[in-house]
Specification:
Residues 63-130 form the Potassium channel domain. The chain crosses the membrane at residues 6-30, 42-74, 113-130. This is Two pore domain potassium channel family protein. The termini are far apart. The chain has 147 residues and is mainly α. Helix 2 (42-73) packs across helix 3. Helix content is 78%, strand content 0%. It contains four helices and no strands. It has a single domain, classed as Helix Hairpins.
Length: 147
């Protein structure tokens, strides 16, 4: 069990690095295009927020894939599609239970769920921060334009 715990922690650390890189990319994207939120156009603001969201959600999907590769590497699944499905169910904490891992590696499921909750929380925080800032900028632009 200790080996599985250490493997799980390693996967969580890799996902943390991936998430941190994607937060940096999302922040750079936002900084590069934040001028769009300074216009009075709600559509420009929506595009800006959507861009941040796409970056962050792609990061979540990448992490699901990383866990799926780990499950394949451990011999839990023979098919990448099944491994990705199981990983997504764990990451999103759905817990369908239609596919379960062997007792030898079962602890990795809850560890991935913990990882998913944390990383989806980071995604939500980035989205809320970008949304609040962009909407504030758009509101200020509309007020200055006299709308």
């Amino acid at each position: 069990m200790l080996v599985n715990f250490m493997v799980g922690l390693g996967a969580m650390l890799v996902c943390l690095v991936v998430q941190a890189l994607l937060v940096a990319i999302a922040v750079q994207f936002y900084a590069r295009y934040q001028g769009r939120a300074r216009s009075a156009s709600f559509f420009s603001t929506l595009l800006l927020i959507s861009g941040v969201m796409v970056v962050m959600v792609m990061g979540n999907f990448l992490q699901i894939f990383i866990w799926a590769l780990l499950f394949l590497g451990l011999g839990e699944f023979d098919d990448i599609v099944v491994a990705v499905y199981h990983s997504a169910v764990n990451f999103a904490t759905l817990g369908y239970g239609d596919i379960v891992m062997s007792p030898a590696h079962r602890i990795l499921g809850p560890m991935q769920a913990i990882n998913g909750v944390l990383m989806i929380g980071v995604t939500t925080a980035v989205m809320m921060s970008a949304s609040q800032d962009a909407l504030r900028r758009t509101r200020n632009a509309r007020q200055q334009a006299g709308e």
